[in-house]
Amino acid sequence: MKPLIVANWKMNPQNLGEAKKIFDGVNKGMKGIKGAEVVICPPFVYLTSYNLKAENCKLGGQDCFWEESGAFTGEISPGQLKNLGCQYVILGHSERRQHLKEDDEMMGKKIGAALSAGLTPILCIGETAEEKDAGKTLEILRSQLQQHLEGLVIAYEPRWAIGTGTPCDTGIAKEIYSALRETIKTDAPILYGGSVNSKNAAGYLKEAGMQGLLVGGASLDVKEFIDIIKNVS
Ligand code: PGA
Fold first, then answer.
1. What is the torsional sign of CA 45, 88, 94, 228?
2. Ligand 1 contact, 90 CB (< 6 A)
3. Alpha-carbon gap, residue 13 to 72, rounded angstroms
4. How remote is the CA of residue 141 from the centroid of ligand 1, in Å?
5. Which of 99, 93, 103, 123 is nearest to 111 (CA)?
6. Which of 198, 199, 156 shows the shortest CA–CA distance to 177?
7. Residue to probe by mutation, ligand 1, list 8, 10, 98, most atoms within 8 Å of CB
8. What is the pTM of this model?
9. Is 148 a catalytic residue?
10. Is the CB of 41 under 6 A from ligand 1?
11. What average pLDDT values come out for the chain (233 residues) when binned by 10 residues?
12. Which residues are within 8 A (CB) of 116 and not within 5 positions of it... i.e. 6 or more apart?
């Protein structure tokens, strides 16, 4: 399987012109790179602009709701994402768990709806700094995993590593990878996310054994993101 590199743009950039620049730059930079599968997850509002032009990258949403249609103001359904050309959807990102109080029960419903619509959910799991210090990392990760993991991608994103410039040590990532692989008992790809850059990217695949990366900040910098892809291809 090719490494799966997922760009999570979060709530960036601020206008369509900037978004197009990043998207076109990555798509162009991907020409000739055959050794990785790249998924770009922009804010929903930019998705319509890209669905016909994503030749070298796949598209994903950053979230979806658990119902397909109806009176759910502000929500986006899995089917709507699918109809815009998305193949993936990030679910349970720690920023949503923290700011919007998304919980594991909601995650179960969202995963079911996403799979029914034909999307591959990327389920984010990760412990806080306090949980890590209390030696509870694996307990927390196991509790965030869902009953049905068939057809999912798992992203291990320690919360203390997200956007902090303090990535997880590759040795620790390797231990966590082994524990997760043993727990999930499927061949679901496991990604690492949290302060990934072009210097540390390869270690998570080659040393820690992960199948890919979930990249936030560095995915908004075209050169840096392409370097990440090249370094793991
Ligand atoms: P980061 O974010 O790469 O900026 O740390 C990763 C993520 O939140 O998915």
1. negative
2. no
3. 26
4. 18
5. 123
6. 156
7. 8
8. 0.96
9. no
10. no
11. 97 96 94 93 90 81 97 98 96 95 94 97 97 96 87 97 97 97 92 98 98 98 98 95
12. 78
